[in-house]
Amino acid sequence: xxxxxxxxxxxxxxxxxxxxxxxxxxxxxxxxxxxxxxxxxxxxxxxxxxxxxxxxxxxxxxxxxxxxxxxxxxxxxxxxxxxxxxxxxxxxxxxxxxxxxxxxxxxxxxxxx
Amino acid sequence: xxxxxxxxxxxxxxxxxxxxxxxxxxxxxxxxxxxxxxxxxxxxxxxxxxxxxxxxxxxxxxxxxxxxxxxxxxxxxxxxxxxxxxxxxxxxxxxxxxxxxxxxxxxxxxxxxx
Lengths: 113, 114
What we know:
Chain A has no helices and 11 strands.
């Protein structure tokens, strides 16, 4: 069964305290792994797409990496404005050549000033 | 401005009263989908559409219907809503078949069925 598991569920960091969020996945035929940021009351906002093991992408204080079984979202020297829920999703084969998305339950990040 | 627009944003209805949540995108995207988001369960895909007249079930399709008659619109229909369909719903759209097929999400529709 295709599955995405994120850990930890919640994380509190002091401003400047770097850390990593984990996304482990089981999918038959990974087409892509996505990271999104979601602020309270809003729709998810795209951050990164990763397609193959060893791939890395960076954006400001965020860096996403991918292995064959998991992805990490590294946050370097976070600021309070980085507080949000971070969602991981995989694109997996659907029926008859289609594809679908499977999301993890997210990591709620709180960065304290 | 590129956007996905859902309506209504908030809806309270009674059990069994048919309702439709509309979704429209202005980016000429082929792929559109509906999700529900529940505490502890995350985002779960209800239905998706690869293009006009092509729709498929996601992981939680029971109790929902969709149609894709035009590329820009993808309404979600609840024929006979029940309290277990109380949730936060998101519509999303993306390009298909290209690298970096990021999904753009609507603002969400908070549905309460009493």
